[in-house]
Amino acid sequence: MKLCGCMYKGRYVEAGATFLSDDHCTEKCKCNPANNKVVCTSPGCQNGYECKRVDDLVGCHPKAYANCSVSGDPHYSTFDGYTYNFQGTCVYQMAGVCSTDPSLEHFDVLVQNDARGKRVGSRTKLIKGEITYLPVNLNHGKIRIYQSGDFAEISTDFGLKVSYDWNSIVFVTVPSRYAGAMCGMCGNYNNDRKDDLQMKNGKRASSPGELGKSWRVAEIPGCVDDCKDKNHCPNCDITEKEKFETNKYCGEIRNPNGPFRRCHDKIDPQPKFESCVYDACLNNGKKGSWCNIFHAYTIECQRAGIKVDRWRRKDFCPASKMEHPKNSHYEPCGSVCHVTCGIGAPPSDCDKPCEEGWLCNDGYLLSGKDCVPIDQCGCMYNDKYHKYGEVFYADQHCTENMTVNPNVSVAKVVAVEVYGNILILRRNQIGVVMVSNAWCCCENLDLHTFLHSFISSLTSMQ
Ligand SMILES: [Ca+2]
Questions:
Q1: Up-side HSE of residue 228: CA atoms within 13 Å toward CB?
Q2: pLDDT score recorded for residue 219
Q3: What is the reported pTM?
Q4: 88: closest CA among 188, 222, 275?
Q5: Which CDD domains does the protein's record reference (predicted)?
Q6: For residue 416, how far is its CA from the centre of ligand 1 (angstroms)?
Q7: Whose CA is closest to 32, among 14, 9, 11, 10?
Q8: 72 C-alpha to ligand 1 centroid (Å)
Q9: 453/457 Cα distance (integer angstroms)
Q10: Is the bond preceding 135 in cis, omega lying within 30 degrees of 0?
Q11: Which residues line ion ligand 1, judged by CB < 5 Å?
Q12: How many angstroms is it from 172 CA to the middle of ligand 1?
């Protein structure tokens, strides 16, 4: 005899069947044939797995990539999710490829910590002194460096992404084919967090200090590998520490009813909480010293597609204290798929989740680190962005005539892009006025007049 099933939210479920109650893998349910009732538990997805739809079935599937982060003062979270604090101030290998597998592109990401934060660089010389403004394309577009939200992002054609908030947060994202091939402060990405304190010689480090020493790649005058200087080591008496642990300070990050509650299952708030208390102690509770940890956790949650409630207030990490350009405004969940000067339009497949940060006001676009009126955008020249009015050496002459692409309809065209000497007309696809990559190599051309006359000529053609 067939057993009776259960009714769940108006639908019939067969006896003994298990299913996910929603598209977020937060609840796994089973129809108990003994009493015809559905029982649900909250498994979430394990580390290294994410909730997604594959072949029309929602479930926990292996992530196609792994993230390592450094934030605050500084706190490391490895690809496998191990967390530790390390305050060395020399230059260290944050992540690198140690496998000799010839099918993998080789790269290293190096970080240097100083009192003000981190500098990120790379042994492959992704960033050189000559580059001053973003975006920049290198190696014929194989490496792109651009602004994404408040972060500078380096993206390569083999799937490596490095993002840096210009202050104290660095994320390194590598695709899953690098699993087990990595080494450095971010660990080996073998889905086992227990072996992540591995030194360059393959042995396990007894402390983060020893780990850092082994991954040091350069010294700078006065740099130290460990927390030797008592003035720069956390020093908190128990009363102070207990104060920082309350919801008025760091406790808010793990408050089950707080702004990050939806994120707790996916990204463990406990290490963030501990980092926060550590930083608050280190800075004697100086206002805002822990805000970077909140900011980094917010970005991590948002990048995982999880909504974070607004937590910045006038008296708690006010947004106005974040570094930001003039003519911009704060958004707790702003689009990072926006247009910046030098990029006529974001990639059509840009489906990144929103991030908190400062966005240029309407009518302004990001030029380097400033928000400028649209007609004061600079241009891309030889794959590098140059600010409007910037004087630089161009290595070729610009004497050819411009050609309008005859295949593009002019209807609703609001902007013009210039690629070399070809103009491409762009439609307004995302609700903001897009702007051309300005024509910048012709000294005698007045950009403002040029754009306006061109756009009005389009309007009159309609
Ligand atoms: Ca590991």
A1: 9
A2: 77
A3: 0.66
A4: 222
A5: TIL
A6: 49
A7: 14
A8: 22
A9: 6
A10: yes
A11: 80, 187-188, 190, 192, 195-196
A12: 15
By the 10 Å C-beta count (0-12 exposed, 13-18 middle, 19+ buried), 315 is classed as: exposed
How many angstroms is it from 180 CA to the middle of ligand 1? 8
Residue 195 CA to ligand 1 centre (angstroms)? 5
Ligand 1 centroid distance, CA of 213 (Å): 19
How big is the chain, counted in residues? 462
Helix axes 270-282, 291-303, angle to 10 degrees: 160
Give 386-407 pLDDT, tens digit per residue. Answer: 777 555 443 343 332 233 333 3
Span from the CA of 102 to the centroid of ligand 1 (angstroms): 22
Q: Could you tell me the pLDDT band of residue 96, with boundaries at 50, 70 and 90?
A: very high
Q: Are 360 and 331 in contact (CB under 8 A)?
A: no
Other beta carbons within 10 angstroms of residue 323's beta carbon come to 10
8 A C-beta contact, residue 364 and residue 328: yes
Distance between CA 136 and CA 145 in Å, rounded? Answer: 5
What does the pLDDT look like over 16-28, one tens digit per residue? 777 777 777 777 7
Q: What is the rounded distance in angstroms from the CA atom of residue 49 to the CA atom of residue 1?
A: 39
Contacts of 35 (CB under 8 A, 6+ apart): none
pLDDT digits (tens, 9 = 90+) for 264-316: 998 889 989 988 888 888 777 676 778 988 999 999 999 988 999 999 999 99
For residue 193, report the distance from its CA to the centre of ligand 1, in Å: 4
Taking the centre of ligand 1 as the mean of its atom positions, its distance from the CA of residue 393, in whole angstroms, is 47
CA distance linking residue 420 with residue 288, whole number of Å: 46
